[in-house]
Design goal:
Elements: H1 3-12, E1 16-22, E2 27-33, H2 35-45, H3 49-66, E3 75-82, E4 88-94, E5 98-103, H4 120-124, E6 128-135, E7 142-147, H5 154-165, E8 169-178, E9 181-192, H6 200-212, H7 216-221, H8 226-234, E10 240-241, E11 246-247, E12 249-250, H9 256-263, H10 268-278, E13 280-284, E14 291-295, H11 296-313
Parallel strand pairs: 5-12
Antiparallel strand pairs: 1-2, 1-10, 1-11, 2-9, 3-4, 3-6, 4-5, 6-7, 8-9, 13-14
Length: 314
């Protein structure tokens, strides 16, 4: 293989999101590779195998949903709260390609299913809810809640799209993790738009092709690119792949300054107690597991600022 071909192959398998349409604009398809960002989440949160799969699928779903938003700064927040041992699974994804997330009980592990697959459905639980919040950056965010269908994430988010947004959708999500870490992760969202919703033959063709596909992480492990997968499904029905490739990455907006600002919510007596008894304060970001430390001097500065602000208000 030529050097340029190798470079292109590496680029095509990097974490990214691409979009396409087919059937004269009647079908919308979005695909994402999320291998590296899922591995980063695994390392940051010390995730078990099944927790890695659950969070990786949820983060990928968030990125796919966020891709349809228009306003710069828009974000999608997905929270799965089932009766399984993982507890809450949360992902926050942006139109800019950034995503972060966490699992309430990250080290829970379950035996694989009889087919050898990670049992994400049992880990998340089949009784509970999916909460989706779309924030366009102004006004009140749009929120919706639907019941869990299976706990497998893909089916649950597809059910949300049908129930809350009245958009027939198929969602494929996959994460493959072994002792070396995450070797492939990604997903694909296919939606039937109103102009094609009455074409039953097209819908049946699309359904049959999606059913015949191997798992999404399996396709990536076989070396298939997003373009390859799109072509396999829709190559003969007017597929148009947009040239933009959006890089994806794990990114958290937390910072030391934000943590210090949050400490102002405590009373002066509480801050003084932290300073004298604990020698400072420590906070861990739930989304990225970064640890921030405020020492005695930091807390004294905060106390001084609070007193100064109070004096100005009186």
């Amino acid at each position: 293989m030529e050097a340029e071909d190798i470079k292109k192959r590496i680029f095509d398998m990097a974490d990214q999101l691409i979009r396409a349409t087919a059937a004269g604009g009647g079908i919308r398809v979005v695909g994402a590779i999320t291998t590296d960002l899922t591995e980063e989440a695994r390392q940051r949160h010390h995730l078990s195998y099944v927790a890695t799969a659950a969070l990786g699928r949820t983060m990928t779903a968030g990125l796919l949903l966020a891709s349809s938003m228009k306003q710069r700064g828009s974000r999608v927040n997905i929270r799965l709260k089932g009766d399984g041992p993982l507890g809450t699974v949360m992902a926050d994804a942006g139109l800019d390609g950034t995503v972060r997330g966490y699992v309430e009980h990250p080290q829970v592990e379950l035996d694989p299913t009889q087919g050898g697959k990670l049992d994400v459905g049992a880990a998340v639980g089949q009784t509970g809810y999916v909460y989706v919040v779309r924030d366009v950056g102004y006004g009140y965010p749009y929120s919706s809640t639907v019941e869990l269908v299976s706990g497998e994430v893909g089916e649950d988010i597809a059910n949300y799209l049908v129930s809350s947004e009245q958009t027939p959708s198929a969602l494929m999500l996959g994460v493959f993790v072994d002792p070396a870490g995450v070797t492939s992760a990604g997903g694909m969202l296919v939606q039937i738009l109103p102009k094609a919703a009455q074409d039953l033959a097209l819908i049946e063709l699309l359904e049959s092709r999606l059913v015949s596909l191997a798992g999404f992480s399996t396709l990536l492990r076989e070396g298939r690119t997003l373009t390859d997968i799109f072509q396999q499904i829709l190559g003969d029905v007017g597929l148009t792949i947009f040239p933009d490739h959006l890089p994806l990455r794990f990114h958290c907006s937390c910072s030391r300054d934000r943590v210090l600002s949050a400490l102002k919510l405590f009373s002066i007596s509480e801050l003084e107690e932290m300073r004298e008894e604990d020698g400072g304060a420590e906070a861990t970001c739930q989304f990225c597991n970064n640890v921030y430390r405020a020492d005695r001097a930091d807390l004294q500065d905060l106390i001084r600022e609070i007193r100064s602000d109070a004096a100005l208000m009186n």
